[in-house]
Amino acid sequence: MNKAGLIEEWGKRTDAPSKTAAKRGVEAFIDIIVGTVAAGGEVRIGGLGVFERDYREAREARNPNTNEVVEVPGKWVMRFRPSTAAKAALNK
């Protein structure tokens, strides 16, 4: 499912009055998660999991075409840890 599919499903399940209203809801949900995690917080959603920020250390990598060593800088990444309930639903 992509964002358009999510908006359509969101609209159906929430009885949104229009596709635009459903789109605003989905975009607000995404903005809240990204903004909170970017600020260093975490978002815990019961039954789904935890979105959190993690630092990926700088490292050396190799260019597979030239075998040249390349420095990859450290950076912040968003991590998602699924809840036990979400894991169980995947393995039914």
Secondary structure topology:
Blueprint lengths: L2 H12 L4 H20 L4 E3 L3 E8 L2 E4 L6 E4 L2 E8 L1 H7 L2
Antiparallel strand pairs: 1-2, 2-5, 3-4
Helix pairs in contact: 1-2
Task: Report on the architecture of this protein.
The protein is 42% helix and 29% strand. It starts with a helix and ends with a helix. The radius of gyration is 18 Å and the shape is elongated. The chain contains three helices and five strands. It is an alpha+beta fold. It has helices spanning 3-14, 19-38, 84-90, and strands at 43-45, 49-56, 59-62, 69-72, 75-82. α1 (3-14) packs across α2 (19-38). The strands form two sheets. Strands 1-2-5 form a three-stranded antiparallel β-sheet. A two-stranded antiparallel ribbon has the order 3-4. The model has no long low-confidence stretch (mean pLDDT 95).
Record keyword descriptors for this entry:
two-stranded antiparallel sheet, elongated
